[in-house]
Amino acid sequence: MIYNENNEWNLKFYTNPKTSKSPILDFIYDLDKREQIKVFKYIDYLREKRGILDEPYSRHIKGKIRELRVDFARNRFRIFYFLFIGKTIVLLHAFEKDSQKTPIKEIMKAEERLNEVIEYWEHYEKK
């Protein structure tokens, strides 16, 4: 679906085109239960706000990529996402941040996945 007729925003998790697994969901489900609840709460909040959240909840990273920022005690979780046609938010990559600066390798992974999502969009339309 390219055009979303209702006013609701869709949320899609990146899935590997070869395995159909979502590394973002795997990452979240590996967290402890309370952390999972907070991460899903922030993801839902992101959808409700149509992908536009101000700092400290979200910030621009590079190009179309933004990060959702979820802090839980001393743990800092980041989920890269972008806004796509048809009122769609695509979650690309998740990781636990352990340094001040966002690691370049994490940004590069998100860029790779963004390109895959665009290339294989028909895979996401079916969901």
Description:
- The N terminus is likely disordered.
- The chain is α+β, with helices and mostly antiparallel strands and 127 residues long.
- The chain contains four helices and five strands.
Total number of helices: 4
What topology, given as strand order, has the largest sheet? 1-5-4-3-2
How many DSSP E strands?
Answer: 5
Task: Summarize the biggest pleated sheet.
Answer: 5 strands, mixed
Q: Element order, helices and strands?
A: EHHEEEEHH
Helix content: 25-40%
Q: Can you give the mean pLDDT?
A: 90
N- and C-termini, Cα separation: 9 Å
Radius of gyration over all CA atoms, rounded? 14 Å
Strand content: 25-35%
Which ranges are low-confidence, i.e. pLDDT below 50, for 5 or more consecutive residues?
A: 1-5
Characteristic key phrases:
127 residues, alpha+beta, 5 strands, globular
Write the layout of secondary structure elements.
Elements: E1 10-13, H1 23-29, H2 33-48, E2 58-62, E3 65-72, E4 75-84, E5 88-97, H3 104-119, H4 121-125
Parallel strand pairs: 1-5
Antiparallel strand pairs: 2-3, 3-4, 4-5
Sum this structure up briefly.
The chain is an alpha+beta fold and 127 residues long. It is built from four helices and five strands; from the N terminus they run βααββββαα. A five-stranded mixed β-sheet has the order 1-5-4-3-2.
